[in-house]
Amino acid sequence: MAPSMSSALTPNSERRHNYQEVVQIPSASTSRRRKTYRGGFHTSICDIFRDPHSRTDCCAVACCGVLASDRNRYLLSGERPPLWRRVLLYFVIPFLFIGAIGYFTVDVPVVEDGEDGGDGGDGELTMKVPPLGILWSFYAYIGIISIWAWWSKRQLRTQIMTKLYEEWSRESGQELNQQQLRAFLRRHNLDLSRAHYSCSCCYTHDNYFYSERDEWNSQSLEGGDNNECPDEDCCTKFWDFLSQMFWCCGCWCQCCGACAIAQEEREVNRLTRYEQQEIDYITFQPYSEYFPSIQYLRENQIKSPWEHLQATSELSRKILRNVAGVLILLILFALSDIDSNFTWENMIVVLLTLGQAFFIEYLVHWRWNRFNLSFDSVAKYFACGFFLATPLAVMFEMIVSTLSLIVGMVIANIIVESNPDLTNELASDPKAFAKDIIENYTGIFVFFQFVNAFCVAALVEEMVKYFSYRMVVTPDLNPRLRAVPLSTNVSSEEADHVDERRNSKKSTGSGITVAMVSVALGFACCENLLYVFVYSPPSIGNEISVLLVRSFFPVHPLCAAIQSIGVCKRDLEGDKRYGLGRIIAPAILLHGTFDFVLMVAALFQQVQNIKEGNDDDSTAASPEKVESVDLATQLPALVAGLVLVVCGNLYYVIQSRAQTRRLGAMDNEELSGIVN
User: Fold this and answer.
1) For 536, which DSSP code?
2) Range of lowest pLDDT (113-127, 377-391, 440-454, 654-668)
3) Residue 445: how many CA atoms within 13 Å on its side-chain side?
4) What is the mean pLDDT of residues 71-87?
5) Residue 596 — pLDDT band, cuts 50, 70, 90?
6) What pLDDT, on a 0 to 100 scale, did the predictor assign at position 664?
7) Taking a C-beta distance cutoff of 8 angstroms, is the pair 318, 83 a contact?
8) With 70 as the cut, is the pLDDT of residue 117 above it?
9) Contact assessment for residue 515 and residue 472, using Cβ atoms and an 8 Å cutoff
10) Measured between alpha carbons, how far is 551 from 528 in angstroms, rounded to an integer?
11) DSSP per residue, 175-194
């Protein structure tokens, strides 16, 4: 995404958070007016992630903005899209297409010049060819869904702009003129269309005070005056950096209309009352329908699991029912022996993978913090990490890894061009060329492993987990809803046990930690399934060994807990120095170092195998020798990884205890004023 040329050429001091800039309009009145942008919006389409305190921008990116658009439509017009239609169109049918493509794919022998195709026997080079009919049908389905989604989002944007025009007419004391409204929408017809293209460049001049008519400049579409600008963090500065990089394109680039959806959600939140916005995504159930039951459990310290399950929201119940249904279908599929690649043994590995995440969740939430965060919120945060955070991380990791791969190819080309022997070897024996490059230029590969560990893996995944936590809005962590009035006749004995019944900072801090760890556990659970069934060789022994190794190193929940220290410092202790960078930096350091140690160990093992002739193409080495070399090389890396995990745990325990004391002191100071 790149901002407009006008934004890039504007000094930072004038450009930062210009969506909240107040403009003085020369008139007889001395009232101060707010800027408006194309279509009368109060925020610019270029303002995504400009405000570090905004949660709506995170929701606009997940699931291509489908959930955020549905919420906007419901708040604006009360329209509730059927959940079954969303599941069918966006999950069931695409998975059926993908499964059919994989099932009907055939191996076709590769025919080289001067050779016949043969009969596809053993030893021949083959390639997998999907059926063209199913493949093109899948492409056509994606195109139809994209057009339908574009039209639906265009209609929603039209409704919002109509509301803005009606609001301006009402506040300016003028009668709404339908002819002028239609003319206004016609002038923005191109903007309405390209705002939600799958990949588009739009609004070459949105970051300045746009003049629809003189009245648009002289009238404020929002009452009140707000001069306060949100604090900057590294995310805001990152977008400012992009402003300087992409100024030459003269427009704002976006994918799947994410920037437009975020702009619309900010506008819808402004047009509706705060009480209307206190609803769940997908089901749109108001918090007031289920949160009183959660408060009752917390106030009365009820420990019954059944009571906590009954106090869940409609969204959490749908999540639990659907997960249970999928597990039952997988068990039946495994027992039916339809596919020899997925048997009951593989199903046991699936259950063990889920059980590992659920066991940690049981300890972190139910055993130690069941009244600091409700079971309902835990289910939502875990589902967000599993279903939303993982696809986002995969997508962004592909983008970053592609960029690093391009840089690596450029460096490799420079090395080859400077060495004629390597050029000849590349033409005659590519496999030998690859081995020589790895053996003779190991330092370059170490550098790229550093980039993969800290940038591709650690940076992307920690940011995705943080924003996934920010994406979920629950009444548990809403200060206005979570507060429980304290009686003024609280005794000193009762004061020690009242933290979990009220909106204490200590209890809220524990809730934040459980929420962020739940997101990380959902993310790690989905990632473990990928590593066990996709990235590891297809055998039960390999699947179980990979699961055991990853279970002994719970890096993701540990890094999330470390992030929660910074979040509590910012949100509860009021330390304004803690922005996004300071919050995720310790987690990136631990996560990146852990991955880097394992990656470098695997690299040096590969180099050692090449030197000793134990690489994959060699038949001289016995399996026992190869196994001993692998064990001798991997053991130090595993020990180093274990040491890093222990150090990370110690760091979290020390920081958490110190923070708990600080929050407890703040609570005691507040409580002493009530008791006295």
Assistant:
1) S
2) 113-127
3) 18
4) 88
5) very high
6) 92
7) yes
8) no
9) yes
10) 9
11) PP-HHHHHHHHHHTHHHHHH
Burial 367-385 (b: 16+ CB within 10 A, else e): eebbbbbbbbbbbbbbbbb
Range scoring the smallest mean pLDDT among 70-79, 334-343, 574-583: 334-343
> Residue 86 has which token pair?
């969303």
Dihedral of the alpha carbons of 262, 263, 264, 266, in degrees to the nearest 10? 90
Confidence of residue 242 (pLDDT cuts 50, 70, 90): low
**Alpha-carbon separation of residue 220 from 12, 42, 212 (angstroms):** 25, 9, 13
Cα atoms in the Cβ-side hemisphere of radius 13 Å centred on 322: 14
Domain boundaries, the chain: 5-112+121-277, 344-675
DSSP for 126-163, please give it.
EEEE--HHHHHHHHHHHHHHHHHHHHHHHHHHHHHHHH
Helices (H), 222-277: 234-245, 258-271, 274-277
The beta-carbon contacts of 608-612 under 8 Å, at least 24 apart in sequence, are: 608/633, 610/435, 610/438, 610/439, 611/439
Give CA 546 to chain center in angstroms. 25
Residue 227's pLDDT band, with cuts at 50, 70 and 90, is very low
Per-residue model confidence as pLDDT tens digits over 198-226: 776 655 455 443 444 434 443 433 333 34
Kindly give, in sequence order, each residue whose CB lies less than 8 Å from that of residue 573, ignoring residues fewer than 6 positions away.
505, 659, 662, 663, 666
pLDDT attached to residue 131: 85
How far is the C-alpha of 15 from the C-alpha of 434, rounded, in Å? 49
User: Could you give the 3-state DSSP secondary structure of residue 253?
Assistant: strand
Contact 504, 667 (CB under 8 A): yes
Instruction: Provide the CA 278 distance to its chain's centre, in angstroms.
Output: 22
